[in-house]
Each structure stands twice: as structure tokens, then as C-alpha cells.
Amino acid sequence: MGRRLTSIDGGRGEQAPEEPRGTVRQLNERAERPEEEQPRLWHVVLSVAGKVTPLTELRAGLEQLAHDHSFFLTARYAADHAEIRYWEQARDLHDAAAIALRLWGEHKSSANLPPWEIVGLEVVDRPTYHKRIAEGFGETPPHLGGVHPY
Description:
Blueprint: H1 24-32, E1 40-49, H2 55-68, E2 72-78, E3 81-90, H3 93-107, E4 117-125, H4 126-135, E5 146-149
Parallel strand pairs: 2-5
Antiparallel strand pairs: 1-3, 1-4, 2-3
């Protein structure tokens, strides 16, 4: 009697264990690649300042920025500075900060914003923001939503 190989499908009538889907190369690439992070929400406070600008022009520019930027929360302004608070969706802090640092410059012409420079930036994740507020340490804006003078 000849020997029967049992390590192949149908050798003893047993079902072979289910193999993971994909080729060996695909499985190895998945194992080597870190899991892709899902975008998270980051609370951003962007401070800008520069030469005195007429308040009506500044307000109109900030209102246009609020219209253009989907997660815009609130802005406060004076003739020579402004603070913009909003939510940004990004993979990590580096991405959120990079987007925030480009915001003013990218909307300068479309929203007719003054040629001010960024003088401050704070970026915190959503849980940190809510924890600060709950503990009384975070500064909540006096007006939620919209564009308001200081």
C-alpha cells in the first residue's frame, strides 16, 4: 500500500484551515505598514497681528474666512490683531499645525485679509480641549460662533 500525503487538501477528508486573504507579499506589506491613523479633531487658536486695518474691512475679511473654512468657530478682532478659533480635522498634531500655519496666507487674497503675520498658535486634541473646559482652565470665548470685536 502506498502512503497518502495528508498535508494537502482532501488528504484525509479534513477541511484545511482558512487562509488569510491576499498573497504572501500583500500580507507582509500589511504587517510592515503601521495602521493608518484616522483623522482626529484638533482645536486651533490662531493669533495674527500687524498694521492697523479699518475694522469694517477686517470684519468683512474674517466673515469671508468663516464662510470659506468649514470648521470655523469664532473670531475676535481689533484694528491691529485678531484671534481665530476653530476645529481642524487632521491625522496628527503636526498636520493640524501645518494646516493652521497656512490658513491665513492661503485665504489672504480670497478673503481680502490684511498682510498680517501669525504671532501665536495653539493646537490641542479634542479630549484635552474638553478636559480643560471641564476643569475650568480653558478660556471659553465670550461669543460662540461668528466674528466679534474684542
